[in-house]
Amino acid sequence: MVILPESAGKLLDFNQKLDISLLDNVVGTMYTGEGTTQRMAQEVLTTLKEHPEAWTRVDTILEFSSNQQTKYYALQILENVIKTRWKVLPREQCEGIKKYIVGLIIKTSSDANAFEKEKVYIGKLNMILVQILKYEWPRNWPSFISDIVGASKTNESLCQNNMVILKLLSEEVFDFSSGQMTQAKAKHLKDSMCSEFSQIFQLCQFVMDNSQNAPLVDATLETLLRFLNWIPLGYIFETKLITTLIYKFLNVPMFRNITLKCLTEIAAVQVTQYDEQFCDLFTFTMAQLKQMLPQSTNLKQAYQHGSDPEQKFIQNLSLFLCTFLKEHGALVEKKQQHDLVLEACHYLILISEVEETEIFKICLEYWNVLAADLYRESPFTSTLSSPIMLGQKSNDIPMRRQMYTPVLSRIRRTMISRMAKPEEVLVVENEQGEVVREFMKDTDSINMYKNMRETLVYLTHLDYNDTENIMTEKLHNQVDGTEWSWKNLNTLCWAIGSISGAMHEEDEKRFLVTVIKDLLGLCEQKRGKDNKAIIASNIMYVVGQYPRFLRAHWKFLKTVVNKLFEFMHETHDGVQDMACDTFIKISQKCRRHFVQVQVGEAMPFIEEILTSINTHICDLHPQQVTLTY
Q: At what angle do helices 20-32 and 35-50 cross, to 10 degrees?
């Protein structure tokens, strides 16, 4: 449809009756038209929206237009007026708009079919009502809370929508108030909400106890979730709320995700006067969890093949367990409920194996806290495996550390098999399974590597021998081919490199000699440029991480540097770059050894390098040559 200037003039003339079908056509053109006509439609609608009297036509548009997009446009006009001109409108007009919106919400949401069909439209109406409430409640509308609670008892679909309004109001006041309203205004609204909360809570409790309407119960739980971070604590801990959530809703598939979110919010509360209730919360939840999710479940596979809600459940479970153990783990330990804590850790280890980075990050945060806590509790108590402990009894190891020993060993395995890529590694496997040079640094992966490295260093300090045994076993499995894959080799070598300095020097020497020999043997054994590139990048990363070892073993240092010169002839993407980077790293950390004459040598190593430098750099690019010099 072509929009003629007279059509536009007709819509903008407030002395004549509004032509609804013309407005519907203009809105339709704006959404489906092209080029000039669409631009003209946009201009007409913008001009109409900005007209100071435009809001007076909203009721006509909403009543007579059958086009959802036109209705939405009318609500945008009204929202604009409320946000920008509410305080200058005459009082009776404010009251009129308020009554009109309330009437419209009640009419639309009382009919369950209309409510379901016009979700977007009602959503916009709800937002407009909340904008009005920010100006009107409690001073000009003191009865709002009792009005909405009273209306909710008359009709289930109306009650469902009222829950959404209460949730939106809570978010506006408690979550988004900064920058949206003055601190004094926000405080006044928060105080009003807290003082009148008993009516809202009774309504929520009534719905949870009595309603068979699933969407209504779901909306109530969603609303309750928004309330939990600000309501007076008595409503949480001195009522039957926790037991209702755990026993009535947690094992119902439809409600378990939102229920777990509510329980996580409760678990995050930091107070000491409700210790008993926190212990009950944990005990009851774990009992239900064992029925829903037997401990033998393979969560990695369950997540892989699960539906979206099932995957979300595993993520929400990790959040609940990590939050509770972080905030109240010590309390449960103090109550001697060690089995429960170990069961929770068992679930978290299973969840840590799930192939989803965001879930792993949640678990990693807790493992970091646990390992650091156990280490700081007794930093100089080592394990029987280390030389300092020989001849001492196992009861010198703190009881708490002994309790967590089997858990810590499983965490080490998980950390080593999932180690993130360090910044120095340039040779990577892309999504197509090709070995390529990395050009863009993955900051997310680098941050995760730093967190995992810190955690693994703590875990190594807690038991050097276990860490070494796991790494040695995994390396033998690479060499004999039982676990050979690029990914497995990468994560293992990144983990080996990450614990540099965490072992005693003698242990480190023995361990590293084995590692380098096995890796060099693997390099000779495997055929194919891709295999060699991956192994080469791992050798370079590991040796670059252990300067203390190289400084103490001249022959090994010389062998490693000569191997780097070999890799400088390797034309595979990224290998030459990594060889040059590792060479400069070793040169900086071991520089004295290059310029001094070492035992059994006729000249300093630097002179030996310079005599054959042209042979070493003949295959490098100009910038790589510069880096080498």
A: 130
pLDDT in tens, 548-593: 888 888 888 888 888 888 888 887 777 888 888 888 888 888 888 8
Q: How crowded is residue 173: how many other Cβ atoms within 10 Å of its Cβ?
A: 24
Tokens of residue 41, six digits? 């439609």
**588, 597 contact by CB (below 8 A):** no
pLDDT tens digits, 50-65: 888 899 999 999 999 9
CB-CB neighbours of 341 under 10 Å:
21
| Predicted local distance difference test score (pLDDT) of residue 384 | 44
Token code pair at residue 494: 């990144």
Burial class (CB within 10 angstroms; exposed 0-12, middle 13-18, buried 19+) of 29: buried
CA-closest candidate to residue 293, choices 255, 355, 338, 343: 343
Look at residue 427 and give its three-state secondary structure: strand
Q: How far is 324 from 100, CA to CA, in rounded Å?
A: 46
Q: Which amino acid is at 393?
A: K
121 band by pLDDT with thresholds 50, 70 and 90: very high
φ, ψ dihedrals at 539, nearest 5°: -60, -45
Please name the residues in contact with 153: beta carbons below 8 A apart, sequence gap of 6 or more.
159, 203, 206
How high does pLDDT run on average in the chain? 89
Under a CB-based contact definition with an 8 Å cutoff, are residues 527 and 542 in contact? no
Chain centroid to Cα 531, Å, comes to: 34
What's the whole-model pTM score? 0.87
Contact 170, 177 (CB under 8 A): no
Q: Are the CB atoms for 572 and 532 separated by under 8 Å? A: yes
Residue 501 has φ and ψ, to the nearest 5°, of 90, -5
Q: Which 8-state DSSP code applies to residue 181?
A: B
Residue 263: left (phi > 0), alpha (psi -120 to 50), or beta? alpha
Neighbouring residues of 1: CB distance < 8 A, sequence distance ≥ 6: 25, 28, 29, 33, 37
